[in-house]
Amino acid sequence: HAVIKAGFFMDKAKHTAAVKEIIAELKAMPVQPWDGKKVILTGIMAEPNELLQVLVDNKVAVVADDLAQETRNFRQDVPEDDDPLMALAKAWNEFDGCSLATDANKPKGQMLIDAVNKYGADAVIVCMMKFCDPEEFDYPILIQEFEAAGVRNLQIEIDQESTAFEQVKTRIQTFAEIL
User: Fold this and answer.
1) DSSP code for 99
2) Which of 7, 97, 126, 162 is most buried, by CB atoms within 10 Å?
């Protein structure tokens, strides 16, 4: 989370160099066994940091994400075009699986189900941004698809101005215990 977020604020060349260094160091480390639960996060973002700490405290590891502020940024390349704005417009037009991008086929649910299988996740946590109508409209579709596929899931509300996390702590602790 911190590494991706830093890319929004750092010089791109310095950030790229730092990411390469971090990747090299991670590859050099021995694989650590994990006896906790594994989840995939989806939504706009998983902030503030206290939310991520709740996952750590409950031995819940994020094995993949579909967060707009995180890896969704890297899901597809922008096509080459002489006009950079046209290239960005084409990329946005072809972008799938984002509640903010209109797509009548609604492939997001199946994309998440496929990710659960690919990464061996125990569940999906939907990080629902407070008052985000597009995500709220898509949520009933996701629930139906998760239930049909037998994918366990939890929806939590993300409020960046919140300073109290007791409800989220209780919900994630309970969810981790029943997984």
Assistant:
1) T
2) 126
In the three-class reduction of DSSP (H, G, I as helix; E, B as strand; rest coil), residue 174 is classed as helix
Give the separation between CA 172 and CA 58, rounded to whole angstroms: 7
CA–CA distance, 88 with 86 (Å, rounded to integer): 5
One-letter amino acid for residue 151 of the chain:
V
The string of DSSP letters for 16-68 reads HHHHHHHHHHHHHSPPPP--SEEEEEEES---SHHHHHHHHHTTEEEEEEEET
Q: Which amino acid is at 40?
A: I
pLDDT in tens, 87-116: 999 998 888 888 888 777 889 999 999 999
- 21-34 tens-digit pLDDT: 999 999 999 998 99
pLDDT, position 12: 94
Count the Cβ atoms, other than its own, within 10 Å of residue 71: 13
Cβ neighbours of residue 103 closer than 8 Å, sequence gap 6 or more: 96, 97
Distance between CA atoms of residues 60 and 62, nearest Å: 7
Q: Is the pTM of this model over 0.85?
A: yes
- End-to-end, the C-alpha distance of the chain in Å comes to 24
Q: Classify burial at 166, counting beta carbons within 10 Å of its beta carbon; exposed 0-12, middle 13-18, buried 19 or more.
A: exposed
